[in-house]
Amino acid sequence: AQTVYEGLPWKSLASELDAVLSGAYSVSLFTYWTSDLIDQVWVKRIEGSNSIEYFGARAADGPRHPLPDMPEKNCTEQMGVPGPAHQRLPHFRMEFTPSGGEELQAEYILPREHAFAALSEIDAIREKIAPLLYVSEIRTVAADELWLSPSYGRDSVCIHFTWRQMVPEVTALLPEIEARLAPFGARPHWGKLFDMRAERVRTLYPKVGEFEGLVRTYDPSGKFGNAFLRQRILG
Fold first, then answer.
1. Number of helical H runs and strand E runs in the chain
2. CA angle 65, 70, 71 (to 5 degrees)
3. Domain at 2-193, CATH class
4. Whole-number mean pLDDT of the chain?
5. Domain locations in the chain?
6. I need a surface site. Which of 30, 105, 199, 213 has the fewest CB within 10 A?
7. Is the pTM of this model over 0.70?
8. Closest Cα to residue 8, out of 32, 225, 26, 25?
């Protein structure tokens, strides 16, 4: 069952962020970086719940979309109504446009224990972020053992940005975001926008040398290589 709560106070993050993110099977925080509140908290529970409050946020009085100008019908059923996992865990219904449709995306993944410090760094430049942004999502991911996974070897928090299609402005801002998150070892999402080059990326992945060994063994001529791999991983 899925319930959306609104108006999570920033002070709840400061004192109880790990509890907030661990309070159900899946928890996503959505913010526009325009105030001292997390605008929406999407809580997905294995069992239904009639709770009207979540760490100071109040249950929404009807269905919500993470983007205020998009129709709620695009989203999976809310209001604590039980249903199968494939109709609750995704935020958006398969038959409708996900998120805002035409958009840019970026996401950075860092150790979970640094979550609040990293979010505070982003909050410090929210006046630069908000005009370019549709919405930002904060979620957690369990550690894995995949060499080039952004969650390799560490339980992680993910800070995602859904940007408006303002390419020059967004690409100009990414280096500042990355610089602020660099002390926390933030890794970029491979399928979204980022500015980091290979010399930085290589320091973030302990197994990148082994990956290069596999490349040399199985693709010695570089047939499956490309500019992205050279600029962002292999150097």
1. 7, 9
2. 75
3. alpha beta
4. 94
5. 2-193, 200-234
6. 199
7. yes
8. 32
Amino acid 68: pLDDT = 84
In tens, the pLDDT along 44-90 reads 999 877 789 999 999 999 999 999 888 899 999 999 999 999 999 99
Which residues, other chains included, contact 178 with Cβ-Cβ below 8 Å and sequence gap of 6+? 108, 186, 188, 194, 195, 196
Under 8 Å between Cβ of 155 and 140: yes
Architecture of the domain spanning 200-234: Orthogonal Bundle (1.10)
Tell the residue number behind the tokens 């080039």, with chain if given.
Answer: 148
For residue 191, give both structure tokens: 């399928």
* pLDDT at residue 98 in the model: 76
Q: Which residue has the tokens 């197994």?
A: 207
Output the CA–CA distances (angstroms, integers) from residue 81 to 9, 87, 100, 173, in the order listed: 25, 11, 25, 40
Q: What is residue 159's three-state secondary structure?
A: strand
Q: Using alpha carbons only, how large is the chain's radius of gyration in Å? A: 19
Chain mean position to CA 87 = 20
Residues written for the chain: 235
Q: Is 89 left (phi over 0), alpha (psi -120 to 50) or beta?
A: alpha
What are the residues whose beta carbons fall under 8 Å from the beta carbon of 221, sequence distance 6 or more? none
Supply 39's token pair. Answer: 């605008």
What pLDDT shows up at residue 108?
98
| Residue 33 pLDDT level (bands cut at 50, 70, 90) | very high
